[in-house]
UniProtKB/TrEMBL annotation:
CDD domains: trmE, TrmE_N. Gene3D superfamilies: P-loop containing nucleotide triphosphate hydrolases, Probable tRNA modification gtpase trme, domain 1, tRNA modification GTPase MnmE domain 2. GO terms for molecular function: GTP binding; GTPase activity. This is TrmE-type G domain-containing protein.
């Protein structure tokens, strides 16, 4: 049974996987709803921004297999660059046998041939996307072929013989799309995450990033404020410009400041969802930690024996729990020991627990029940001394081996009631349901540490604007310009002047 040491769960979001753990017999099923809440101060989120190859000055034509290698119905070879049409001319033979250039954006049945020998490589489909109306904004040819190892390699090697073509680097098609203005940086990151997304929630977050460029909206809003202030510099209130313009800008900035602050106080949900939650299983020896890990993994990943001190090193597994990526670590049982190897294991276990986002302490219910004669006492009196220093308000407890415990146990009161508490079922199974009081706030938009850094800097510039006296219009405008640039860095667009011109023209209609 898992139970949080504090009643209220502060975390803003939750996982609600339903674990049905019945290591010993079907009758003693232990149903467990773990709700994992991650608090603001999670540690160690690295910046995982996309690594793209260096810019290709010559913009040569590149090619690659765009679908996974291996046996499949269809594989797609993509060719992008100024010579894509030449590739078509030397390798694609239309079934109609008519010699003509492709009709753009139309799928055509064709034979794909070796450019030198005219030898047939495969029968398939081909389509020509005329730039800039293509993914990369360049001319693109796609060859839809039968996806077999031999066919794929014959087509790729035919392409490699063409002097004007070279194999694409990882991410290079996307890079060209970005450089062609087709995607902004957040969309590129979203696309990469989408390809990498292993679990459902990650997929959703990635889709969101790829679809909505929310940062662009923010930036445009800041630029609107800037336009208002710039208008004052150029014309001066009361003359050609209506009264109260500065105040209008101020109010907008206050609202924007709030919006950005809300995004920043998302407790890093977006980043956590992307990189996975680190869950450490710990507790005294023989409590059943490795059994729990094996249950979660649905396989015998860790060695389980009745001998205390079985696990020594840390065993980490990446799991998908309720659609969230969770990195679960099994650790050595915590106890004082003179054994050199076990000692190191215990030290590693402590460090792991301290570095984890969530820790789950497994205790043997019969063992702690032995020392707990009084019903109604809090669990914390019975936590073994070796465990206590690692227990925080965010530690979950799992009271294991309930099948061996006396009935009633001194801890039944902890497990009664519903909602945020645990409840006990009549059939000796247990349900613990810990749900967050705080409804999940808005969808997170910050999925990379890089976004956070720029948003924080934008926030500081907006604050500086609000602190500037309206007399100092020029200085105030400068702060807004910096704020827009900071947000612009998220999407990789910093051409503030261009947008400013456009917005400014609109704003000054007739003045
Ligand atoms: N009866 C009963 N036995 C259990 C339960 N869970 C685990 N065990 C047994 O308890 C023993 C210890 O289990 P492990 O999973 O190795 O315990 P551990 O906490 O990983 O132990 P160390 O790695 O030595 O610290 C094994 O014999 C398990 O089969 C349970 O719920 N009920
Ligand atoms: K053991
Ligand atoms: Mg173990």
């Amino acid at each position: 049974m898992a139970r949080r040491s504090s009643d209220k769960i502060k975390g803003p979001w939750e996982i609600q996987p339903r674990l049905e753990w019945a290591p010993h017999s079907a009758e003693q099923t232990c149903l467990l709803n773990i709700v994992i809440c991650v608090d603001a101060e999670v540690r160690g989120w690295g910046c995982n921004s996309v690594q793209l190859p260096a810019s290709d000055a010559q913009r040569r034509t590149i090619y690659a297999l765009s679908t996974p290698t291996g046996k499949a119905g269809v594989g797609v070879v993509r060719i992008s660059g100024p010579d894509a049409l030449d590739v078509w001319r030397v390798m694609v033979r239309l079934h109609s046998n008519r010699v003509r250039d492709p009709e753009p954006w139309k799928m055509e049945c064709c034979r794909i041939v070796d450019p030198k020998t005219e030898e047939l490589l495969d029968d398939g489909l081909a389509v020509f996307f005329k730039g800039p109306r293509s993914f990369t904004t360049q001319d693109v040819v796609e060859l839809h072929i039968h996806s077999g190892r031999a066919i794929i390699s014959s087509i790729l090697s035919a392409l490699s013989q063409l002097p004007y073509c070279r194999p694409a680097e990882p991410g290079e098609f996307t890079r060209r799309a970005f450089e062609g203005g087709r995607l902004d940086l957040t969309q590129v990151e979203g696309l990469k995450d989408l390809i990498d997304a292993e679990t459902e929630s990650q997929r959703k977050i990635a889709l969101r990033a790829a679809g909505v460029a929310r940062f662009e909206e923010l930036r445009t809003d800041i630029i609107h404020c800037l336009a208002l202030v710039e208008a004052l510099i150029d014309f001066g209130e009361g003359e050609e410009i209506e009264e109260g313009v500065y105040e209008q800008a101020r109010q907008k900035v206050i609202a924007l400041h709030q919006t950005i602050q809300n995004h920043l106080s998302d407790n890093r949900r977006g980043e956590v969802l992307r990189s996975g939650i680190r869950l450490a299983i710990f507790g005294p020896p023989n409590a059943g930690k490795s059994s729990l890990l094996n249950f979660l993994a649905q396989r015998e990943a860790a060695i389980v024996t009745p001998i205390p001190g079985t696990t020594r090193d840390i065993l980490e597994l990446s799991l998908d729990i309720g659609g969230l990526p969770v990195i679960v670590a099994d650790t050595a049982g915590l106890r004082h020991t003179e054994d050199v190897v076990e000692k190191i294991g215990v030290e590693r276990a402590r460090n792991m627990v301290q570095g984890a986002d969530i820790s789950l302490c497994v205790l043997s219910l019969p063992e702690i029940a032995q020392d707990a004669p009084n019903t109604g006492d809090s669990l914390q009196y019975y936590i073994p001394p070796s465990i206590k220093p690692l227990v925080t308000s965010d530690t979950f407890f799992l009271l294991n081996k309930s099948d061996l415990a006396p009935h009633p146990t001194p801890f039944d009161h902890l497990l009664e009631g519903g909602g945020n508490h645990a409840s006990r079922r009549k059939d000796r199974s247990w349900i613990v349901s810990l749900t967050s009081d705080t409804p999940s706030s808005e969808e997170p938009i910050i999925t990379h540490a890089r976004h956070r850094v720029h948003l924080e800097s934008a926030l500081r510039f907006l604050e500086a604007f609000l602190d500037t006296s309206p007399e100092d219009v020029v200085l105030a405008a400068e702060e807004l310009r910096y704020a827009a640039q900071a947000v612009g860095k998220v999407s990789g667009l910093i051409d503030v002047e261009d947008i400013l011109d456009a917005v400014f023209r609109d704003f000054c209609i007739g003045k």
